[in-house]
Amino acid sequence: MEQLPALRERNIVLIGFMGSGKSTIGNLLSKKLYRDFIDVDTYIEKQQGMSIPDIFREKGEETFREIEKEATVHLCEKERLKILALGGGAYSQPEIREVCMKYGIVILLNLSWETWKERLPLIQDNRPVLQNKTLDEMETLFYERRQIYSLNTLQIDTDGKSEEAAADEIVHLLKLGWDWYPTHMPDERGRDKNLK
């Protein structure tokens, strides 16, 4: 039976709707926890030699999702002690949810629809998924994704908080968890015969 990595060694995986602050908070966590930060979209852009909007335009969303899945699975299975920020739609793929929950500590950066709407002018132009969508269609997507994001290790509500405050809250909760469960989460003990 496969031995799961100890809790402290696992990647911290940030999920949430596009524009929720994953990259900014991920960079802050990187400094606070002395871990490397990997933005999976940036990782894919370097790997493919083109921007995410260009991949969508030239190869289509289906191909992008396959590239995204391969990259995320690779990072989750092969890397340790990293901070990973997933693209907003990545967690919609069952294989990505499974590998993130198995090998990582998945943290949802939760924000309200009202707060997200205020950020829309800042993010709309470089998000292929939002192109040609009405506000109603964006709202539908927002709540569809929220259902998917409900599978997580812990959730941080970011409304009314600075990125710094959200990062500090995450660090506090992680350290509490590491103190309580120095090796593995309680529900994993039955899955791994090597756990004491």
Primary descriptors:
196 residues, alpha/beta, Rossmann fold, five-stranded parallel beta sheet, 5 strands, 52% helix
Description:
Its cofactor is Mg(2+). InterPro entries: P-loop_NTPase, Shikimate/glucono_kinase, Shikimate_kinase/TSH1. It is an enzyme of class 2 (transferase). One of its GO terms (biological process) is amino acid biosynthetic process. Pathway: Metabolic intermediate biosynthesis; chorismate biosynthesis; chorismate from D-erythrose 4-phosphate and phosphoenolpyruvate: step 5/7. The chain has 196 residues and is an alpha/beta fold. It has one domain: P-loop containing nucleotide triphosphate hydrolases (Rossmann fold, 3-Layer(aba) Sandwich), CATH 3.40.50.300. The protein is 52% helix and 12% strand. It contains 8 helices and 5 strands. Strands 2-3-1-4-5 form a 5-stranded parallel beta sheet. Helix 4 packs parallel to helix 5.
Secondary structure: elements and pairs:
Elements: E1 11-15, H1 22-33, E2 36-39, H2 40-48, H3 52-59, H4 61-78, E3 82-85, H5 94-103, E4 104-110, H6 113-123, H7 135-149, E5 154-157, H8 163-180
Parallel strand pairs: 1-3, 1-4, 2-3, 4-5
Helix pairs in contact: 1-8, 2-4, 3-4, 4-5
